[in-house]
Write a structure and sequence with these properties.
The complex is a heterodimer of chains A (85) and B (183). Chain A is mainly alpha-helical and 85 residues long. Helix content of chain A is 74%, strand content 0%. In chain A, 16% of the residues are buried. Chain B is 72% helix and 0% strand. Classes of the chains: A mainly alpha (85), B mainly alpha (183). At the A-B interface, helix 1, helix 2, helix 3 and helix 4 of A face helix 1, helix 2, helix 4, helix 5 and helix 7 of B.
């Protein structure tokens, strides 16, 4: 892969990131939506991206719950004397 | 899993950074003390969970950077839910789930295979690369924050590592999706 191709892929990933993180400006979002409709390959690449992140999430969530109840109780106790007016 | 961390250590982090976070949250988000305190408690709990899962074993950065970043994202999520913040940006939330409607035994088998392929691909990534993806996509940290938390020289290096890790995973997913179309 040449540098230009790699740069273009990085830019596309930046775009996808900004869309899913909700940091894209309205104009960018509108252009993105239009391209999703018009460009099948682009839409497929975005689908691959979405499903990949979905698996990442599943993988992490599958690591098991950690019991934080004792810590929460200790932190609440810590705030017992705190002035919160 | 790492060794079970001592809760007292996390209470100490809370004690040490709580007031700075409350001040910072009021200044940048107009959060009141109660909101800021709740967000910071949640941040300390997330830090604890990561420690129990062994994800802080090679932690090289500032605990405060990590705690503030998580706390900020907790506040942002709450503000978004209340629709009182960030209205100047058009939010375009996308449900990022690997789940899809599964109707038949064939589709269930394909889904299990897809999950297995992705688990293998993720396992092949280095621990630090997995953490970069997790911190960025699931915990919402910025590149600079990830660099500080994981001890990288700068944000650009993290960005490149994230790109190559995602590229590797997406390639596996793409091949899988192509196979589904072919057969």
């Amino acid at each position: 892969m040449d540098q230009r191709e790699e740069h273009s892929e990085m830019e596309e990933l930046d775009l996808f990131d900004s869309i899913v993180r909700g940091s894209a400006e309205k104009e960018v979002v509108e252009q993105f939506k239009a391209r999703l409709q018009a460009d099948e390959e682009f839409a497929q690449r975005f689908e691959v991206f979405k499903r990949t992140i979905g698996h990442l999430r599943e993988n992490v969530e599958g690591e098991g719950d950690v019991d934080t109840s004792e810590l929460k109780r200790r932190l609440e106790d810590e705030d017992g004397g705190m002035d919160l007016d | 899993m790492g060794t079970t961390p001592h809760i007292e250590q996390f209470v100490q982090h809370y004690r040490e950074h709580r007031d700075s976070f409350i001040f910072w949250a009021a200044k940048h988000f107009g959060a009141d003390k109660e909101e800021a305190k709740d967000a910071f408690q949640q941040a300390v709990c997330v830090l604890y969970e990561k420690a129990v899962q062994g994800k802080l074993d090679d932690f090289n950065g500032q605990i405060s950077t990590y705690l503030f970043a998580i706390g900020r994202n907790v506040l942002l999520d709450r503000f978004r839910q209340q629709q009182t913040h960030g209205n100047h940006i058009q939010r375009y939330a996308i449900h990022l789930s690997a789940e899809k409607a599964v109707d038949s035994a064939q589709e269930r088998m394909e889904k299990r295979e897809e999950q297995a392929c992705m688990r293998r691909a993720m396992a092949e990534l280095g621990e630090k690369d997995r953490r970069i993806l997790e911190l960025y996509y699931l915990e919402g940290l910025k590149m600079q924050e990830i660099a500080e938390v994981l001890g990288y020289k700068n944000a650009n290096l993290v960005k490149k590592k994230k790109f190559y890790a995602m590229k590797k995973l997406m390639e596996v997913m793409r091949k899988f999706m192509v196979l589904l179309v072919v057969f």
